[in-house]
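Technical note accompanying the year-one report. For the benefit of new consortium partners, we illustrate the data format agreed upon in the data management plan: each record pairs a sequence with a structure-token string. No post-processing was applied to the example shown here.
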Amino acid sequence: MNIREKLEELEKKTLSPYAAFSSSSKGRIRAEEEDDLRPVFQRDRDRILHSKSFRRLKDKTQVFLTPEGDHYRTRLTHTLEVSQNARTIAKALRLNEDLVEAIALGHDLGHTPFGHAGERALNRVCPLGFEHSDQSLRVVDVLEKDMTGLNLTYEVRDGILNHRSKGDPSTLEGKIVQFSDKIAYMHHDMDDAIRAGILGDDSVPDDIGRVAGYTTKERLDYFIHDIITESSDKDEIRMSEEAYDAMKSLREWMFRNVYTNPKAKSEEGKAESLVESLYMYFFNRPDRLPMEYRELMSRRKDPLERIVCDYISSMSDRYAISVYSDLFVPTSWIIM
């Protein structure tokens, strides 16, 4: 018995009967020889962690475009905070931490530059539509590893695709990431809004604060404890009605005060115009797409609209601005 097999046996002895066991995975798109050290979900986690698309998250917007300061969240730090929350919950419920971490690290790989502003722009201009959850799956299935894909397991791919509110993950681990994503972004976005002077330290309304707490630490502790308590020894991941209502109210309050706040969003119109301009340029000039994307279109027969979205959504904020400048800004106007 090799190390992987011993670890798989350990899962069966220590994890909840409701966990997704590595040895019972539904498998990969393409069959592979098993690793002698790592169970399949750990192997998937490592593939995502070492991917180029994961590294690019460090230069993609979370909420604040080009913020002045080193401590604002990026899409990468958001991803790490989702992973940390999800692993805490999974460990307490004796569910599969490797699967939770793989899903969490991969859930936003398909996000555009400039956060949801870029996503809105591509969805508006592309007749096929664009959603970052679908694109995240396309990244791991097709675009990564020189356009051959990471060949992840069904369970990880399912969790990545279904992490948004409207999704329905097939594993409890996927449902944990779904909750953890919301908990993470609401709280770190609030923290960033306080840092930006958009909110005050005491901004949280009393009806939310009395239930969930007035500080980030108190609320994170409350929501995570509630999920663990309500889901313990159950074949579902859930919140109490009180906690769910508090989270819903907090989310609505954040939309009113941060996500639609002109001070936070004043530059988003420019970002959306930039992304739309890039899309129209490469759609009308597919010969200017990088060779690997042209070869992908030829090999897979995917529509040009999808290939252009693949290229633009892969860009970091900084690279998108650089490409736009090269294409549309006269050299003499660029300040060096």
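Partners are asked to follow this layout when depositing records. DSSP finds 17 helices and no strands in the chain.
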